[in-house]
Specification:
heterotrimer; A alpha+beta (395); B alpha/beta (342); C mainly alpha (385); B: 342 residues; alpha/beta; D-Maltodextrin-Binding Protein, domain 2; 14 helices; C: 385 residues; mainly alpha; MetI-like fold; MetI-like_sf (chain C); transmembrane helix (chain C); membrane (chain C)
Chain lengths: 395, 342, 385
């Protein structure tokens, strides 16, 4: 009896069950236990399956001889190379197509985004039609469209379309002359580097002078003259060492020159066209996001429209644009994995081939996932740095 | 310590599942009432759906033969089309009971992928096909240096191709695709000069091209491609049933037992025929195998003998018109040979 | 006090004046919108040149020169290619789309059973349209029917095998049927999973939070195609021997989990935008966690992020086309598959088929984005400043 009364006298503490702390711990333990059990179950099943089916495991296979060839290789590779190298070749191809795609998509995207805000009705509408079309169809379809709809119906190599500068276009791709650097061409590169360095120096000085005295200096034209003129001068001095290797007809294909294969071309064009539509919308939102007062104030200070855009609007708009732009870059990189549908040897495709040849599905899919994940994290890290730099402009 | 623990666990699990599996496939198949058969996504003569969606071809018929042996009814099969990439996982995981999908028998697949090939239902070799109209004057694979070659990725074909060009010091430009239809489309559109795959496949693919007459198969055979059905490792009974179904098909041809005459043959007094058809008194050949004693009768009734199956699907009775060649019986100078059924 | 001079007050309105001649009428519109400055005029000329270059070609190809009817490739090939069209002809081969329309919609679904997907489609539209129009009453009942009754009924109708309906295996499904089933299930599954993940990410429990963050960031960092590879190649190895499940279902799980990670980030954005006072207010009313979230926070947060949610839906709808790569035949896959039909192989086939597929995808995505804009305007209750 007594003990009951004591209990009744202490109801002030909330029930044990209702204590949020206890609940939280209980809930988390539950989650961990459930998750652990699930993971243990999967791992156990996998070990069982691998052992039962005598499937090899581990990453030792990466050192084995690949035995297959790859069409586009940026680094030395032959069928004698290892599986590991094949995957690296694929990874580099992913980087190439993603890099090229990002640059082009950004260019087209900015032009379209600014075009959508043009005072010119016609330009506005053209840009809008483009954006609305490409935003609403799957990227895979765009890739197929370029590949089967456009590039595959070009003429056969024998009837190639002749383009200026000794270039050709046919269903095997785009061929253009390859530069062959003769003796003494190192001078040209040195001149180029010197030109760039001097241009940078001139720009710095010009800015300091403008800050100090307000006088402007034609930086753009001087830089152009330096960067283009110096290498040209070096080219003439070293006795014109540059020759071109022109593509020529042979039994099967055009040989010589530089060939851009239709697989790369369609993937690159499709990714650029598709992502450009999204970038255009981001750019538009960014520019609209800069309040009108900024433009008007800059106008009141007497800046010309071009300078207003360059000095006032764009720096502020960039702060709005960069975060979503980053995710578009990431999307483009991830979408480059669609290469597998048209046979461009990117990471997914080569890792898929290795998977097929070795049967080690878990390891290969794991490699793919980790590489893309690291790539994504790196891209966002770089863009975060850029973003931080942009944000610092604010005073 | 940890590794040992995992090893023990794995070994224990292996023992458990292996015993479960050996009790497994035949019983599970009988229980569900049909055989799940992994076939290609469409290769004329081997496994391809016809206009009505019924699978036709040697590989498909082989599964029907196994169904006939197990159930006495060749229609109790369901087909799963598999890509080159999926095929092994599908068999390993039990999604299909037989992989009958023009798959090349190699040591690696027997030892590292957990498959058991039951034999060679079709002796094939890798060849090349070109468009003779666009490339007049090319009549040997050795003239192909510099060509763009279409090939399906992740196959032995891709590896043989690399070896062949390398050993002959020739250059080539691989154009690879995941799916057979994509390779076909690319070749037909002229993306590449040469198509390489198993010769039987080339004949089949030629039929589906825009202008079949323009294309010729070059004479060189650059590899051995023994194609055969495979089952999972660790289930000997099922392995035996599938293997002996194949031998029974050969034995039937050797003894002249056909779809048309199998009922009459039952009454034959040739002791070998009687034994094979299960007409001997107190025979235990079929029941020891785990099927009924008239299993060979059922097989032949369902799909005919090996020769009939061949001619109907890829030989003279089909659009492919492939000659028997090395796929003839050993008695006729070929390689097809069955151990005695006794 | 200020002095007011009230000696003269105008008692009638002045007559409205005509606007200056320069700012009205088509002439002024052209001056303002097309040739406002020299640069503008140049741009206009470039624009007109572009339109003149592209538009007639497109119209010629898609309509004037197009071949609308026909039974095989000869109708879409030039004489040189073995057809009936004059040499140099270039036009869309709609005859191909026409002949394969059934396949594009249903794949290899048996012809005598095609009334089933058609019935499901009618049901879908009949329930969806009233749900989308704000004025139609009984939204609750409608939503229950749409999200609970319809999927069950659709499953029974499409898969069959009960109530006397013959069983139709999913490998026979294809075309728009697969695209729409994948998207519907993906959308219906990813929203709740995404909400749970978003709540988990904002949870105060460190372990739950870490798990959600890891899941979301991992999935967002990898391409969908690797997720689908995992579902098609690795999943069988994760399950006990002999346990397998349908390929379509595997793809569904992959697509749903993938979309859920993106959905989670969108929902998180909404949750963060809700002022702290709302949370505290709910707490002070004595509401529990789920009551607080379900009754106070989520209704406001979700409303804020409707555009984001719809964008994720659109993205997912487009992403369903990737199942083609793992060997399933959605709309794009079926269209692509039919290019290899020797009966229809012409230079125009691929282009026509792809443009048809693009048009169908575009119609759905554009419709969704327009509806989201409409809803956004309607629900705009002044959160934006």
């Amino acid at each position: 009896m007594a003990s009951q009364e004591i209990l009744r006298e202490e109801p002030s503490r909330a029930s044990f069950v209702n204590d949020p702390k206890v609940r939280s711990i209980f809930f988390q333990v539950l989650v961990v236990v459930l998750l652990g059990a699930g993971v243990w179950w999967i791992v156990q099943n996998t070990i069982d399956n691998l052992a039962r089916l005598h499937i090899a495991s581990g990453f030792g296979f990466l050192r084995g001889r690949a035995g297959f060839d790859i069409s586009d290789t940026a680094i030395a590779y032959s069928s004698d190379s290892t599986y590991g190298r094949a995957i690296v070749v694929g990874f580099i191809n992913t980087l190439i197509v993603a890099g090229a795609g990002i640059v082009t998509a950004t260019l087209i995207g900015f032009i379209l985004g600014i075009g959508r805000l043009s005072r010119n009705w016609l330009i506005r509408k053209i840009c809008m039609v483009y954006v609305e079309i490409f935003r609403n169809i799957p990227p895979l379809l765009v890739i197929f469209f370029w590949y089967s709809g456009v590039l595959a119906v070009l003429p056969i190599p024998r009837e190639s379309i002749n383009l200026p500068f000794g270039s050709f276009l046919n269903q095997r791709g785009f061929y253009f002359p390859r530069a062959v650097w003769g003796d003494g061409s190192w001078l040209i590169f040195v001149a180029l580097l010197v030109g760039i360095a001097m241009a940078w120096f001139v720009a710095r000085k010009a800015r300091q002078r403008q800050m100090a005295t307000g006088q402007q200096f034609p930086v753009f034209w001087t830089s152009l003259a330096l960067i283009v003129g110096l290498p040209l001068l070096a080219y003439a001095l070293s006795g014109f060492p540059l020759t071109f290797d022109f593509p020529k007809q042979s039994t099967f294909n055009l040989t010589g020159g530089f060939q851009v294969k239709p697989e790369f071309l369609s993937l690159y064009l499709a990714l650029s066209c598709y992502t450009a539509a999204f970038i255009a919308e981001i750019v538009r939102a960014g520019i609209v996001g800069v309040s009108k007062g900024q433009t008007e104030a800059a106008g009141a200070l007497g800046l010309r429209p071009g300078s207003i855009l360059r000095l006032v609007v764009v720096p502020q708009a960039m702060r709005i644009i960069i975060p979503p732009l980053t995710s578009q870059y990431l999307n483009l990189t991830k979408n480059s994995s669609l290469a597998i549908a048209i046979g461009y040897p990117d990471l997914t495709a080569t890792a898929g081939t290795v998977l097929n040849q070795t049967g080690q599905a878990i390891e290969c899919v794991l490699i793919m996932m980790v590489v893309y994940l690291v790539l994504s994290l790196l891209t966002s890290a770089v863009m975060n740095v850029v973003n931080a730099k942009m944000a610092l402009v604010e005073r | 310590m940890k590794h040992i623990a995992i090893g023990i666990l794995g070994a224990a699990a292996l023992g458990l599942t292996a015993s479960a599996a050996s009790a497994g496939t035949l019983d599970t198949v009988k229980q569900k009432g049909f055989i799940q058969c992994g076939v290609s996504t469409g290769l004329a003569g081997f496994s391809a759906p016809d206009d009505k969606g019924d699978w036709q071809g040697i590989d498909a018929d082989f599964c029907r033969a196994v169904a006939a042996a197990v159930f006495g009814d060749g229609t109790k099969v369901k087909f799963t089309p598999l890509s080159a990439k999926e095929r092994f996982t599908a068999l390993q995981s039990g999604e299909v009971d037989i992989l009958s999908r023009n798959t090349t028998w190699t040591i690696n697949r027997d030892t590292a992928l957990g498959l058991n090939f039951i034999g060679v239902t079709y002796y094939d070799g890798q060849g090349f096909m070109i468009n003779a109209k666009k490339l007049p004057g090319v009549n040997s694979a050795l003239q192909l240096s510099g060509a763009a070659v279409c090939v399906q990725s992740g196959t032995t074909t891709e590896l043989n191709l690399a070896d062949y060009f390398k050993s002959n010091k020739m250059e080539y430009n691989p154009v690879v695709f995941e799916k057979l239809e994509e390779v076909n489309a690319a070749y037909d559109a002229g993306r590449c000069d040469v198509y390489t795959t198993d010769q039987s496949g080339l004949y089949g693919i030629r039929l589906t091209l825009g202008a079949p007459a323009d294309h010729v198969v070059l004479p060189e055979i650059i590899s051995k491609e023994p194609l055969g059905p495979a089952v999972r490792q660790g289930d000997d009974q099922w392995y035996h049933i599938v293997k002996w179904t194949y031998f029974a098909l050969l034995q039937a041809e050797e003894l002249g037992i056909t779809k048309a005459n199998v009922e009459e043959m039952k009454a034959s007094d040739n002791p070998e025929i009687k034994r094979v058809l299960g007409q001997e008194a107190d025979t235990k050949i079929g029941t020891d195998l785990g099927v009924s004693n008239d299993w060979v009768v059922n097989i032949v009734k369902a799909v005919g003998n090996y020769g009939e199956m061949f001619e109907r699907n890829v030989g003279s009775g089909s659009p492919l018109k492939i000659a028997r060649g090395i796929n003839a019986l050993w008695t006729k100078g070929g390689l097809q040979y069955a151990p005695p059924i006794r | 006090m200020q002095e007011h001079d009230t000696s003269w007050v105008r008692t009638e309105m002045a007559l409205a004046q005509q606007a200056p001649a320069g700012v009205r009428g088509p002439g002024a519109w052209v001056r303002k919108n097309l040739i406002g400055s020299v640069g503008d005029a140049i741009l206009t000329i470039i624009g007109i040149a572009l339109v003149v270059m592209i538009l007639p070609q497109v119209i010629n190809w898609a309509f004037l020169n197009a071949q609308w009817t026909g039974i095989d490739r000869t109708f879409c090939a030039t004489v040189a290619q073995g057809g009936i069209q004059p040499d140099g002809w270039s036009g869309a081969c709609w005859a191909f789309v026409n002949a394969k329309f059934g396949q594009f919609m249903f794949g290899r679904y048996p012809i005598e059973e095609r009334w089933r997907p058609i019935l499901v489609a009618i049901l879908f539209v009949a329930l969806l349209v009233p749900l989308l129009i704000p004025k139609v009453p009984r939204k609750g009942l409608n939503a229950i029917l749409f999200f609970l009754a319809m999927p069950i009924l659709a499953f029974i109708l499409l898969v069959g095998g009960m109530f006397g309906l013959p069983h139709v295996e999913t490998p026979l499904w294809g075309g728009l049927l697969v695209t729409l089933s994948l998207s519907f299930v993906g959308i219906a599954a990813s929203l709740p999973i995404g909400i749970v993940l978003a709540l988990g990410r904002r949870s105060k429990m460190p372990i739950v939070k870490t798990l959600c963050v890891v899941f979301i960031e991992t999935v967002r960092g990898i391409p969908l195609i690797t997720v689908l590879f995992m579902a098609s190649v690795m999943l069988p190895l994760f399950l006990p021997a002999g346990v397998t499940f349908d390929k379509l279902l595997r793809a569904l799980i992959g697509v749903s989990l993938f979309a859920a990670a993106y959905m989670a980030e969108v929902v998180r954005g909404g949750l963060q935008a809700i002022p702290k006072g709302q949370y505290e207010g709910a707490d002070s009313l004595g509401l529990g966690y789920w009551q607080k979230m379900g009754l106070i926070v989520l209704p406001q947060a979700l409303k804020l992020v409707i555009p984001g949610i719809v964008n994720t839906f659109i993205g997912m709808f487009k992403d369903t086309s990737l199942v083609y790569i793992i060997g399933m035949f959605d709309l794009l896959g079926v269209v692509k598959l039919n290019f290899s039909d020797a009966n229809w192989a012409t230079p125009q086939t691929a282009r026509s088929g792809l443009i048809f597929a693009a048009f169908v995808f575009w119609l759905f995505c554009f419709g969704m984005s327009r509806y989201s804009m409409f809803t956004e305007r309607r629900l705009d209750t002044g959160h934006k400043r």
